[in-house]
Amino acid sequence: MTRVRTSLLAGVVGMIGVPAAAERPGRETDEGRTGTDAHVRICPTPGTGFFVIPGTDTCLRVSGRARFEYAFQNAYSRNSAGDISGYQARARINFDARTQTDYGALRGFTRIDVGSRTGFATMHAGAFNRIGNAFPATGVDTAGRVQQQVALDKAFVQFSGLTAGRASSFFDFYAHDFEFIVASMGSNIPSTNLAAYTAKLGRGFSTTLSVEDPHFRQTAVYSTQNARPLVPGLDGGFAPRAVSPVFVGANPDGTPTGIGFVESAQRSRVPDLVGVLRYDDTWGTLQGSAALHEVSPGVLARDAYLGTHLGAPATALNSRDAGRAPSAYGWAVQGGVKVNLAALAPGDTVYLQAAYGEGTALYTGLPAYVGPYAQSATAIQGAPFTQFLNDAVLNPLTNRLELSTSVSVTAALLHYWTPSVRSAAFGSYGTMTFAPGARAAQGLASGVTGTGPGLPGTRFFALNQVLRDSYRFVVGANLIWSPVKEFDIGVEAIYTRYGMQSGRVLDLSRFPAQNAAFVDNPANPVATISSVDAVQVRARVQRDF
């Protein structure tokens, strides 16, 4: 077995391009044979699985993963069958290189993650596609259903308290450690660009200050339209842009009538600042996290002016220069505790965490499961309504960003029934609440744009899903059998419900064409609903090595 393992290590060294030292002719190994195998030496200092790269003082560990998953989730559409199955195969390769120096260990870690994913919305890589990590098919039957994912998941350097590169956000704590489907709420950003410093304070305490890439924490500023007439793009070309209305024209009595549009796409301006205080002991871990996050809009575009003074204001008195809306700064805090329950069984663990944020929905994790990069989203195909989970809404009356509030709480328990059989149970609850008056202000603009939540005071406004305060609840459990070390066969099921914090909304799965003109006519019947339920079951076969 030792000969086989040593030969494999030598082969890996060759594959990654590390030159092996030439074997002296006639020199025998300790096992009485010649060859280059003797130059691959085990490196026990960093941990198991490391070997010395020939000709260097660096220890390297090569590891990886192969995974297959199948999932079933019923579609809710009354108009089409929808997708009810999802599949994915994933491959992962890790390189962990460590060198001992006078200042401590120097570490470089790289992870490449690739996958083939198909099926319904929460199985395929829709979010990865929107951030440039996946490539969708374009066939008639496969568009939006088949994707190939290629991602640089990790690439960071650690040295004397410094971490720099692509790594998991330091804000995160539980981060779905026990889950297949990743359905509970709570922050989980496994791949972002950052530079951080961690200081050990003694007695189990440590603190971290991290400067992190904001792109992977951005949830769209609310926009009334997904596209606008073609205008010059930032890259010098022409591209459609998501836009939000701002009143820039008014009647002589002051009634707002003319609207310009602000690009809703956020800019890359200020990095996120994350601070963490952590305590580790034999019984478990405590962690408190805080973050500051900028929400920034684009610029006003007068070429899309709408209203009673179409094209240009009639006089200087009924037009004002709205300019660029000022940025708003959101923030989030999170507290968590992890307790080791070795008294029940070795490896048993419980997590409890809660988060609160303003303008920082991905720090509380509320939109992660249903689609954090969309204006509105749902995890259920053919759902009667979608959730709006925007970080902010641009008030058309004041040209100011108004931040949304999100809250999440999560609990998870892992229990080993036997050394080879374990299961987890988890539950989570979260809410999204928009700033007071934000929805009504958008409704005033609806009379000019014909989009948005509709005019305040109408039946359509009262029952529209746009910018409604919502909640989500999820519970789940799994069972995993590991007949061999680092080999898992398991199944997981979740039940989730999302709905309105108050009131009801139009059921668009029963009557998809319930527009303002139809709903506001009292002679027309309407169908309404307050919540949606869904169940997903997912099976997994996984081998780590």
Q: Please, could you describe this protein's structure?
A:
Residues about 1-40 and about 225-240 have low confidence and may be disordered. Strand 4 and strand 5 (about 105-120) form a beta hairpin. About 10% of the residues lie in helices and about 45% in strands. The chain has helices spanning about 1-15, 125-130, 360-365, 440-450, 460-465, 515-520, and strands at about 40, 50, 60-75, 85-100, 105-120, 135, 145-160, 160-165, 190-200, 205-210, 230, 240, 245-250, 255-265, 270-280, 285-295, 300-305, 330-340, 350-360, 375, 385-390, 390-395, 400-405, 405-420, 420-435, 470-485, 485-500, 505, 530, 530-545. The strands form six sheets. It has a 16-stranded antiparallel β-barrel with strand order 3-4-5-7-8-9-10-15-16-18-19-24-25-26-27-30. It is mainly beta and about 550 residues long. The longest helix has 14 residues, at about 1-15.
